[in-house]
Specification:
This protein is α/β, with parallel strands linked by helices. It has 15 helices and six strands. It folds into two domains: 212 residues, Helix Hairpins; 117 residues, Rossmann fold, CATH 3.40.50. The chain has a six-stranded parallel sheet with strand order 3-2-1-4-5-6, with helices on both faces. Helix 4 runs antiparallel to helix 7. The protein starts with a helix and ends in a 5-residue tail after the last helix. It is found in: Cell membrane.
């Protein structure tokens, strides 16, 4: 249990989330500092949004959107969301492009963004979850970015509408009406530039709303389908397969070896423990010593139930449960982590007991002493028999 909790502290998702958040702040920092420097000017520009935008700089709006988007996406990265990973890479690519094309490009920021992008690509397997939280973050970021673009663009082009739009509430109203494609007709563009701007709001509004809905609803539907497929259909299809109990390094190695040889494998993973099995693995969540969990994993029709947990007592209890619910042809195998527990584990009568500790130490000693190592010796040592 303690090892499982410690593994979470070393998960790269948190570190990458922090790096991406710092990248976003670094990119947006010039705008923040510039905003603080012009605070004294806010008073006489309170009613002149066009002048306010001119001072801030309309070209700084993309920087605000991109930097803020990276900071928000860092939350999704901490949740290991694949959607946040994808969106972060896209935002970082745009940040790098802007830095390259900018006259005042910062080489240090560009290098940092490239390093973060490479790290995200290296650890892509870490981000394999799909959740409502990640979809909500995407929806919040994309909708907020579009709203900033629409509101400030409307204020900047305020004179180019049928009734000049000079205040924030009216700009917000026009943006919502355009993004939702309602089109009451009380405000409309009268110049080509304003018409093109309004068309862009409509097109992006439809795209953002449709994508945001799918990002939020998708995990819900996908989760239900996954539960149906893995909970109902898989129970029927699990036959002549191997059941691995645990998330130890040995368990992961055995899983990789069996799947590489084309064998069907079901894994039982404790609910409170991280694991490194592939996202498409046939995984049953629960305690391996529970008869109901083993039945769900298809123990009645399994070839082998292999107890590979880090605790010998848990392996022993798992074998007892497997022998209770397993089929007539189901065999049980128990790993003994400490050689002094071999006799205790043998009492539950698994079909095979093996001790990697005994095997490794004896082979090393015999190698150092120059003694003969043959197949019979390895077999006896591997299955916990004393020589």
């Amino acid at each position: 249990m303690l090892k499982c909790k410690l593994l979470k502290l070393y998960n790269p998702a948190w570190l990458l989330a922090i790096l991406v958040a710092l990248n976003g702040y670094w990119f947006i920092e010039p705008v923040i500092l510039h905003s603080f420097s012009i605070i004294p000017s806010f008073g006489h520009l309170a009613d002149d949004w066009s002048g306010f935008i001119d001072i801030i700089g309309i070209t700084q709006l993309p920087r605000v959107v991109l930097g803020g988007g990276l900071i928000i996406m860092s939350i999704g990265l901490a949740l290991k969301a694949r959607l946040a990973w994808t969106f972060s890479l896209i935002l970082l690519a745009v940040v790098c492009t802007i830095n390259i094309l900018s006259d005042s490009a910062g080489l240090l920021l560009l290098s940092y963004s490239l390093v973060v992008s490479v790290l995200l690509l290296i650890y892509w397997k870490t981000f394999d979850s799909s959740s409502i939280a990640a979809g909500s973050l995407f929806a919040l970021t994309s909708t907020g970015a579009l709203m900033l673009y629409a509101v400030f663009g409307t204020l900047y082009l305020g004179e180019q509408f049928s009734s000049p739009i000079m205040d924030l509430p009216t700009a917000f109203y026009f943006s919502i009406v355009s993004m939702s494609t309602v089109g009451y007709g009380d405000l409309y563009p009268i110049t080509s530039t304003a018409r093109l701007f309004t068309a862009s709001i409509i097109v992006m509004g439809i795209t953002v709303f449709a994508t945001s809905i799918s990002a939020i609803i998708g995990p819900v539907i996908g989760g239900n389908l996954k539960r149906i497929v893995k909970g109902r259909i898989s129970n029927v299809m699990r036959k002549n397969h191997y059941i691995i109990l645990g998330v130890s390094p040995t368990a992961h190695s055995v899983y990789a070896g069996l799947t590489e040889r084309g064998e069907a494998v079901t894994v039982v993973v404790p609910a409170d423990c991280e694991h490194e099995y592939p996202h498409d693995a046939d995984i049953v969540i629960g305690e391996s010593s529970s008869s109901n969990i083993l039945i769900e994993a298809g123990a009645q029709k399994a070839k082998y139930v292999i107890a590979l947990r880090n605790d010998d007592a848990e392996n022993a209890f798992s074998v007892l449960a497997a022998k209770e619910v397993g089929g007539a042809n189901t065999k049980t195998i128990a790993l003994v982590n400490s050689s002094k527990h071999i006799s205790q584990v043998k009492r539950v009568k698994p079909d095979v007991v093996f001790s990697l500790q005994l095997l490794g130490s004896e082979l090393l000693v015999r190698t150092l002493k120059g003694e003969t190592i043959d197949n019979d010796l390895i077999t006896r040592l591997f299955f916990g028999e004393n020589t």
